[in-house]
Amino acid sequence: xxxxxxxxxxxxxxxxxxxxxxxxxxxxxxxxxxxxxxxxxxxxxxxxxxxxxxxxxxxxxxxxxxxxxxxxxxxxxxxxxxxxxxxxxxxxxxxxxxxxxxxxxxxxxxxxxxxxxxxxxxxxxxxxxxxxxxxxxxxxxxxxxxxxxxxxxxxxxxxxxxxxxxxxxxxxxxxxxxxxxxxxxxxxxxxxxxxxxxxxxxxxxxxxxxxxxx
Length: 214
What we know:
Strands 1-2 form a two-stranded antiparallel ribbon. α1 packs across α4 (102-108). The model is unreliable at 209-214 (pLDDT under 50). The protein is mainly α. The protein is built from seven helices and four strands; from the N terminus they run ααββααββααα. The chain has helices spanning 2-23, 25-38, 87-94, 102-108, 158-171, 174-190, 201-213, and strands spanning 44-50, 56-62, 112-114, 143-145. The protein is globular, with a radius of gyration of 17 Å. It has one domain (2-213). The longest helix is centred in the N-terminal third of the chain and has 22 residues, at 2-23.
């Protein structure tokens, strides 16, 4: 397991990401043109995320929302019918096409195909506020999809999502990654659990801290 997660997995990731980028180059270029024509702003959305060992990196996505969306509306959450999502954005989100630029993140070594989704630097909470057990989710490279995504995806509250991520770290194998890959394909085709519902996560964390003080 250790040999696979440390070395073999990285080789698979690099080769598969390279093949995928070459194969999808033209479709991705077409998507980029459509995004540019659909709304003003850059084609690629960049956002700081926390990666392996707590290292901060920029994740790449096709832009699916209007420029400056995080500063308006519901902040980091995008629920059903969010007016900040562009017309083409609704389509590429529903099909997860917006995640394709993360193939570049995989080539760079920031990410893997399979692993815990990398959280924002400030959400669900700051890196310094993770418990010792929760920090274990950062022992592996974050992924485009992961165990938490196929066990509820965005419908899972963050504390439980992290528990699922830690479970993955303890049980990572090639067979588990293959299982997650095919379950992800099913989720994408059925568009299951693709709406954020965990807006109270910070309140949950705050309540836990208050209990610790008492």
